[in-house]
Design brief:
Layout (H helix, E strand, L loop, with lengths): L22 H8 L6 E4 L6 H8 L3 E6 L2 H12 L5 E5 L5 H7 L5 E7 L4 H4 L25 H7 L2 H12 L4 H14 L5 H9 L15 H11 L2 H15 E11 L2 H14 L20 E10 L2 H6 L7 E7 L26
Parallel strand pairs: 1-2, 1-4, 2-3, 4-5
Antiparallel strand pairs: 5-7, 6-7
Function: Specifically methylates the N4 position of cytidine in position 1402 (C1402) of 16S rRNA.
Pfam family, one: Methyltransf_5
Protein name: Ribosomal RNA small subunit methyltransferase H
């Protein structure tokens, strides 16, 4: 998968087909073994799942995109029952695992990027590299990006574009969107990209990045509730992993990486601070220990072979015996955004 900051090819990455990112590092961090049960929360094209199956593990492959589940059926049929595919949200991974008879699992892996197959299909409306319907829905259900840009209040659009796209000219972009939609509602990706180009100029130092990249990223994250899903899935993983189980997460965007970083830092913490002037405070026992201290990036060789890996970061932890704790997703880094037909909050 991919998802990062995009380039001239249109929102993120080039036209290459799906290549699993950081596969060797994911396999090393997960250390799959025969008999293990691993939840692949973002099945996609099944790159990680295939590697775990090859190692003798069983896999529960979850994906929100019905196309990914459809395309994965051949692998499922060839797995001798060791791969079970589930169409659903990865925030519900605990419920999906229990429904298949597993009250605890040995591993949870999540790749938080959008898949290459979604980006490369104009009809899915994720990219301005092609002209397609302004959609961006991974589940192919619920409010679309067109619904958001055509009806949301300007102040809410500004916050979404600024927070989720980290677009410095968010106010100008939302103003241009609101003016344009008075004349004609947005229907296609190129209609929106052309309006944004009028108010956001190319950075000469980053000429390959299209001016609409950050706004498209913001809309995609909002429409799919990506940060809410990520934070909720971390909490679900904490509940369903058995002691010794492994959590491996690959991120592509600073906001989602911050959530994973904060979660693991909090859950791995063994001391409550303290200094010469301040006493230590009591903290709950750690629920994880680091497998990877900090994060791991793609190698130069992998980025050369797969440019979409350039923004990927891997973080990983091993589950300890302590009981799972409640998680406040906003304290974990999910920004508060306007509610819109089940989105945001």
């Amino acid at each position: 998968m991919t998802g990062g900051d995009g380039d001239k090819s249109g929102i993120a990455g080039g036209p290459a087909r799906h290549i699993p990112v950081l596969l060797d590092r994911v396999r090393e961090a997960m250390a799959p073994a025969p008999g293990d049960v691993i939840v692949d929360g973002t099945f996609g094209a099944g790159g990680y799942s295939s590697a775990f199956l090859d190692a003798g593990a069983s896999v529960i492959g979850i994906d929100r995109d019905p196309d990914a589940i459809r395309d994965g059926r051949a692998l499922e049929q060839a797995s001798d029952g060791r791969l079970k595919l589930v169409h659903g949200q990865f925030v519900d991974l605990e419920e999906h695992a229990r429904a298949l008879g597993h009250d605890a699992v040995d591993g949870v892996v999540m790749d938080l990027g959008v898949s290459s197959m979604q980006l490369d299909q104009a009809a899915r409306g994720f990219s301005f590299r092609f002209d397609g319907p302004l959609d961006m829905r991974m589940e192919q259900d619920g409010p679309s990006a067109a619904d958001v840009v055509n009806t949301m209040e300007r102040k809410d659009l500004t916050r979404i574009i600024g927070m989720l796209g980290e677009e410095k000219r968010a106010s100008s972009v939302s103003h241009a969107i609101c003016q344009a939609r008075e004349e004609k509602p947005f229907e296609t990706t190129l209609e929106l990209a052309r309006v944004i180009e009028k108010v956001v100029k190319r950075n000469p130092k980053k000429a390959s990045i299209h001016p609409a990249t950050r706004t498209f990223q913001a809309l995609r994250i909002y429409v799919n509730g990506e940060l809410h899903q990520a934070a909720g899935a971390l909490a679900a993983a904490e509940r369903i992993l058995r002691p010794g189980g492994r959590l491996v997460v690959v991120t592509f965007h600073s906001l989602e990486d911050r959530i994973v970083k904060r979660f693991l830092a909090d859950r791995c913490k063994t001391r409550g601070g303290g200094s010469r002037h301040m006493p230590e405070v009591d903290i709950p026992p750690p629920t994880f220990e680091f497998i990877v201290k900090g994060n791991q990036d793609a190698s130069v060789e992998e980025i050369t072979d797969n440019p979409r890996a350039r923004s990927a970061r891997l973080r990983a932890g091993r589950r300890l015996d302590s009981p799972a704790r409640p998680l406040d997703i906003h304290e974990a880094g999910v920004p508060r955004l306007a509610s819109f037909h089940g989105l945001g909050g």
